[in-house]
Amino acid sequence: MTKTWFITGASSGFGRQLTELLLERGDRVAATVRKPDALHDLATKYGERLWVGILDVTDSSAVRDIVGKAFAELKRIDVVVSNAGYALFGAAEEVADAQIERQIDTNLVGSISVARAVIPHLRQQGGGRIVQISSSVGQSAYPTMGVYAATKWGIEGFYEGTIPEIAPFGIEVTLVEPGASRTNFASSSADAGQILDVYDQTPVGDFRRLVASAGLAMFPGDPRKVASAIIASAEQTPAPRRLTLGSDAYALVHTALTERLAALESQKALARSTDVDA
């Protein structure tokens, strides 16, 4: 059975891959982009099966308007993919205030705005699926990626609280945690702070040298395979709470959770000792 999808940030990366694959298989896609001609080739090829809206997710009023328009014109949307976002690289003191604000406004506040806009429509139509593109960095982080990680940890925390709120209405959520994939994640869509020499002989410098020397080996993920796995997850019932994609993502998340659980267990007695005496 064909589905109707709503995808933000569809001009590149996973958003573009998802849009292409869904149209190829016969689904209908409402895609939002910031530049009017970003999907001109797909619009020419697929006609009315591609609905295009111009949207910057940092404008919450525009998010509500475009979501409302899409639901009104398409009548029903089965799956919402909140994908719009970008990377910011730099140690904490290397990134500027404006860069931090823009990163949070796009990746975190923008994603929350999309969720808040679509939930009433999904509730009123009797249910649906939300797919939030997070990151393996939403469970751990690398040096120079602290601010980016903060937005991904933030959106995961938002959905941990929101999922039980909307479950009674038949709305399910999947947090997708890809590793490094061969999209334009670290190139045209990225931002970076100034580079301070003082960090050269620290884990920051080590990480930068690793990225520079490893080349494509640092990006093992195939965007088309990632997109295919996301599409397949929309058929699963119940929806997987998290979808970790990529060998690097699995290794990073597995290590982080194992170490975190071990640290928690070591504090079990201390935790209990701070309760009020019986």
UniProtKB/TrEMBL annotation:
> Does the keyword Oxidoreductase feature in the UniProt annotation?
yes
CDD domains registered for this protein in UniProt: 17beta-HSD-like_SDR_c (cd05374)
- Cite the InterPro entries for this sequence: NAD(P)-bd_dom_sf, SDR_fam, SDR_oxidoreductase
Give the top-rank taxon of the lineage listed in the UniProt record for this protein.
Bacteria
- Molecular-function annotations in GO: oxidoreductase activity
User: SUPFAM superfamilies this protein is in?
Assistant: NAD(P)-binding Rossmann-fold domains
Question: Which controlled-vocabulary keywords does the entry list?
Answer: Oxidoreductase
**Which Gene3D superfamilies does the record associate with it?**
NAD(P)-binding Rossmann-like Domain (3.40.50.720)
Q: Family assignment?
A: Belongs to the short-chain dehydrogenases/reductases (SDR) family.
**Which NCBIfam families did the record assign?**
PRK06482.1
Designated name of the protein: Short-chain dehydrogenase/reductase
Organism this protein belongs to: Rhizobium loti
